Amino acid sequence: MPGSPNRLVRRRAVVLGGAAAAGAAALSGPFASAASAASAASAAAFGWSDDGSNYVVDTGANLVFKVSRTNGDLTSLVYRGTEYQGYGGKNSHVESGLGTSTVTIKQSGTTILVSVAYGTLKHYYAARSGENNIYLWTNKADTSVSATRYIVRVKAGLFPNDEPDSYTYAPTVIEAADVFVKSDGQTRSKHYAKRRVIDYAATGWTTGGVGLYVVRSNHEKASGGPFYRSLLRHQSTDGGGLYEILYYGENQTEAERFGLQGPYVIAFTDGGAPSSSLYPGTLTTAWADSLGISGYVAASGRGRVAGVGITGRDTTYAYTVGLADQAAQYWGSARASDGYFSIGGVLPGTYALTVFKGELAVHTTSVTVTAGATTTLNTITVASTNDPANASAIWRIGTWDGTPAGFKNADLMTYAHPSDVRAAAWTGNVVIGSGGETASFPAYIWKDVNSGLLVYFKLTAAQAAAAHTLRIGVTTAYANGRPRVTVNDWVSSIPSPPAQPSTRSLTVGSYRGNNHTFTYSVPASAWLTDTSRYNVLRIDVVSGSGTTSFLSAGTSVDALDLLV
Q1: What's the CA gap between 91 and 74, in Å, rounded?
Q2: Confidence class of residue 39 from pLDDT cuts 50, 70 and 90?
Q3: Cα–Cα distance for residue pair 426/435, rounded to 1 Å
């Protein structure tokens, strides 16, 4: 074992014998070539040293990294002799750096663990002999650190500038200090990740010969659920960043969770994607069970939830099952054929179980999970009344799936600012029955941009003789933006604002908030009695909050319809 972490020591080799060869043989995918190249000589180099300022860890493969003894920053990341760490004079670290911390190191056989303590926050780096990976855990106990992220800062010029992720080279700031516009009118921001948490396992870059990735954790202690969008990566003229965002105070729908999160992995490859054995739900870390990581719960202390099926589904949509309580969150996909699902690695507790059609909650119940056991659920039936799409409608624009999918500019808004030159005009009056109503209706409505949208429609004599319910579903709102409607000469009251995140959303690539349906009881007296004429529905966004333009009060639309 290496000596005291406070004493300068030489790197000491670990004799692995047959275990090293067996470990290398177990690696597959992008790591296979690195493992085979390491051979016995590389494996013998596995160990750590102290250079007086940093703990220096040699994984015995092609990766050597340094961790500051002062603050726990990752100060060097050398792969195949090339330094990848650092830009703008900054290191890789938790949040924006922790400051003076207690940093220790220990070696347990083929694993080296660096532990960082900063007040109530604990952070860990682990290396395994013969692997080009760094495993990380972060245990945040309270709000003494404002957010929870890890950023890997990468030197400029090492990877191709993947322009959709670039941002700081753009010449003009158009919002806050983090949204930019290029000379061609296209917008860029580090916020424009496009992907939801459920859509990716890793983010990174490749030259074709070298790949550098961050493989996300299972987000057990994160907040926002499977559909949350946050920073993934960025590039600029002075370097790039890869992120693991565990809590980020922007468009959050849930309170912050505390406790140990991880592992997430910094992984180097021979150019391909990281091995799927590192992915959330696949990665096994029994080797970490005895390392003494604060808050660590081994697989034996966790349980599983399995459902035999879900009936009442609309099979044209994907369904997701989520588990959430104040301490943890999990999710899994329901099988398309029958709705079967299985969610493993769950901490013991009682959870709210939610079935999502797309991103729209259509069923909720509770389930209790115990350690070492599987809680098996009988067939879940989604009641027809729980899915708003089942209601008979005279007309409908959009689909009830909890997203603005299909509306004008909806897809673009996950990776661009609303002012982007690629966006179609935000006006969007439609005539029911003309075809293409959804595609011509804007995904977002702002008080200061396109409030006053018009929908033209005709009613039969029988329909005009009755009162009807008008519904407008939204996925989020900014600055308490909510719709007030006018039907011909009839004006609705102003609805109360639903609970929504208070931070930016529509301009930073996210429509994900709290789905809410506004309902308006429109009396028969509101309709035109002349069935040859069009009734006119006007939708205005009202709010006393917000500023101007795209930061005025606004909302994202899920669907709107007039019920039979």
Answers
A1: 6
A2: very low
A3: 18
